[in-house]
Amino acid sequence: MSLINTPGAVPGGGQSTGAGMPSVRQLQSVLKARGFDPGAVDGKMGSRTRRAIEEWQNSVGAPATGKMTVDQWQRLQS
């Protein structure tokens, strides 16, 4: 299980959180839909997005790193 912690540019706008991961905008949208407030859905991996990831991680008993893994992304979507 690898941690995804370095955003990169994605063609068409936004940022990707890494291989096998969504754009930051997609991640923010799913977090928001699940009740975890990432702030504005703007495609930027800011402090509010990291805090929303940490809150979700706490809710599922995962270490609160603020960095989503591929496995966690799959779980968040289910």
TrEMBL record:
<dbReference type="Pfam" id="PF01471">
    <property type="entry name" value="PG_binding_1"/>
</dbReference>
<feature type="region of interest" description="Disordered">
    <location>
        <begin position="1"/>
        <end position="24"/>
    </location>
</feature>
<dbReference type="InterPro" id="IPR002477">
    <property type="entry name" value="Peptidoglycan-bd-like"/>
</dbReference>
<dbReference type="InterPro" id="IPR036366">
    <property type="entry name" value="PGBDSf"/>
</dbReference>
<dbReference type="InterPro" id="IPR036365">
    <property type="entry name" value="PGBD-like_sf"/>
</dbReference>
<protein>
    <recommendedName>
        <fullName>Peptidoglycan binding-like domain-containing protein</fullName>
    </recommendedName>
</protein>
<feature type="domain" description="Peptidoglycan binding-like">
    <location>
        <begin position="22"/>
        <end position="76"/>
    </location>
</feature>
